[in-house]
Amino acid sequence: MEWHWKELLPVDRLMIRAKDQLTVQDQRVLILLYQPLIGAVAYSLYMTLWSELEDDIYWSEETTHRQLMISMDLPLPQLFQERKKLEAIGLLKTYKKKKDDYSTYLYELQPPMSPQAFFTNDVLSVYLYNRLGKTKYRQIRERFLIDKLDEEGYEEVTYAFDEVFTSLSHSEIATHHQTELIEALEIDPNKEVVQRGQEQDLLFADRSFDFQLLESDLATFSNAKKLLTVEIKKVIIRLAFVYRIEPLEMSRLIQQALLHDDELNVEELRKRAQEWYKIEYGNEPPTLGLKTHPLEHREMSGKVPQTEEEKMISLYETTSPLDLLESRSDGAKVPLADVKIIESLLLDYQLMPGVVNVLIDSILIRNDMKLTKALIDKIAGHWSRKNIKTVKEAMELARLEYQKNTAYQQSKNEAPVAKGRPKKSSVRKEKLPKWLLKEQEEKSAAATSDHNSQDPKVAQEKERFNKMMEQLKQNRSLKEED
Questions:
Q1: What average pLDDT does this structure show over 87-111?
Q2: Cα separation of 359 and 352, whole Å?
Q3: Where does the Replicative helicase loading/DNA remodeling protein DnaB N-terminal winged helix domain start and stop, copy by copy (predicted)?
Q4: Rg of the chain over CA atoms, in angstroms?
Q5: pLDDT beyond 80 at 128
């Protein structure tokens, strides 16, 4: 599916704008703090856009995305994905003007957060800790720490402005100079003075958090509308996102962090959220993952699945990789090593969530429910190079790879062996999903339809699929009830 043509074309124009220039400190923050989260390619794109602005020039010349593709040596789909990372983390604002045969994009570059703002951010600091680990995180943070000023024994003797400078009286300013002064102080309304903008926090779409449910639960003992100010809601959204807290559980944490009926201790709420996460998920910090398969890549969006294969496609498209692994374990906690594998597939190999589901599921079923990282990395690299974007493409490729592997194993088994050497046993039969065996089944459907209808392996596979679907439904209903 050529999905990227709907979003961006090589002929689309672009212009770059900045409100300020990057400082040496900004570049250090980008490399040490942002790059571990967004990756080297997104960082390179950010610096490439900045390089289009000459010193003391805050608008670039108009160019095309084709030129940017050549400069970055990136295909358009990847360029678009890396751009979205910069937007999501607050380093880029994008504006679009539509014309008849092309669009013009304005990319407004945003400076990174200050170290103080970054390390006190509820979201970024937690994810950086998880990416770097405790020791490296502290080493990096130490580079941005300075000793506090010990004022004991010192007395401030700094002179004030009015102690040094004086103002001219009206009689000392000529009349014509007053007019010149007024004109000189005026700024063209179509322009603005270069400024270092305020700290840009991460932008969250709060549609995923049910504030109405939270308010109704809080209303039983406090003035919820007065309590949930705009700033408090921003904190709640960030904490709910990072620690995966549902509205009713958030209500209980808020109740524990109240100072008075209508006053919330934000630091206490953060502490309560962290303690709740440790109880629920252990001491490991939460990982940064992606959601379910993007709508523009879904085959079954708005369709009702008819065949078993379509049901599997719909399942892979609407389930996150972590939820799929959890359902494979009958709801048990996913081991941290497996979480790391999923995170690597999503972030390092840039695979879509639905594609990751197909890869993980096919390996689990063929490998006795074990995830072997070396094998996963080998397949992930192949799929990433082939730019697999849809679940259907991934299933076709998994099916083809299985057929090749089966043919190879059979040829080895049927090859003549040396005299006196015992013949190897036949290839082990694997419990595989029907979509992985689609081609073989189509070839032999007429001859084996009656047999397959009573085949215990087919029945077992159907039972496994239905059980997995039921487990997912139960997990979702439990989350809604909580």
A1: 91
A2: 11
A3: 10-223
A4: 29
A5: yes
Q: Note the pLDDT tens digit of each residue in 310-323.
A: 888 988 988 888 78
Summarised one tens digit per residue, pLDDT across range 423-457 is 544 444 445 566 666 545 554 454 444 444 455 55
pLDDT above 90 as % of the chain: 21
Structure-token pair, residue 408: 């190879």
Q: How far apart are alpha carbons 342 and 357 in whole angstroms? A: 9
Alpha-carbon gap, residue 78 to 3, rounded angstroms: 12
Strand partners, 248: none
Q: Are strands 63-64 and 13-18 parallel, antiparallel or unpaired?
A: antiparallel
Tokens encoding 353: 């969530």
Say if residues 199 and 111 touch (Cβ distance below 8 Å): no
Residues in the chain, overall count: 482
- Indicate the SS3 state at residue 92: strand
Instruction: Output the 3-class SS for 14-40.
Output: EEEEECCCCCHHHHHHHHHHHHHHHCH
| Residue 175 reports pLDDT greater than 70 | no
Residue in 53, 58, 31 with CA at minimum distance from that of residue 42: 31
Hey, what are 304's tokens? 């009702």
Q: Which residue in the block uniquely carries the two structure tokens 């672009």?
A: 14
Q: How far is CA 383 from CA 19, 288, 390, in A?
A: 40, 22, 11
Taking the C-alpha atoms of residue 61 and residue 66, their distance in angstroms, rounded to an integer, is 15
| Alpha carbon of residue 426 to chain centroid | 45
Q: Which residues of 369-388 are buried (b: 16+ CB within 10 A; e: fewer)?
A: eebeeeebeebbeebeeeeb
Rounded Cα distance between 395 and 359, Å, is 8
* pTM of the complete model beyond 0.90: no
Q: 200: helix, coil or strand?
A: coil
Are 97 and 183 in contact, with CB atoms under 8 Å apart?
A: no
- Contacts (Cβ under 8 Å, ≥6 apart) of 282: 333, 336
**Amino acid letter for position 260:** H
Q: What single DSSP character describes residue 59?
A: B
- Residue 454, classed as helix, strand or coil, is coil
Looking at residue 1, its pLDDT comes to 34
Residue type, 188: D
pLDDT in tens, 261-288: 678 888 888 888 888 877 877 666 666 5
Report d(CA 295, CA 73) in Å as an integer: 27
